[in-house]
Amino acid sequence: MENEEFKTVMRYSDPLRARIAEGMLLDNGIPAAVFGEVSPYPSANLIDAIELKVRAEDYDTALALLSTPYVED
To answer: What are 15-64's pLDDT values in tens digits?
Structure first.
């Protein structure tokens, strides 16, 4: 993910949620990275200070995936 334009697709205050979302995007073939994580404890992070970023060309697909409700089989 070097020398590419990145866009913030979501913001979180809970690092675990950010990492889960990152993993879901990676599992679906979308390179993603978490920025701004200060601590593994949500109360130590500023509100919505953790950013999940993707390549600009993957933004719409990533947003659609993150907006899809989870349904168990």
So the answer is: 889 999 999 999 999 999 999 877 655 555 566 589 999 999 999 999 99
Q: Is residue 33 part of a domain?
A: yes
- Residue ranges with strand state E in the chain: 6-12, 32-35, 50-55
Distance CA 18, CA 28 (A): 16
Range of the structural domain that residue 34 is part of: 6-39+47-67
Number of domains the chain is built from:
1
Task: Give me the CATH number covering residue 26.
Answer: 3.30.70.1530
pTM here is: 0.79
Please give the Cα distance from 18 to 35 (Å, whole number).
9
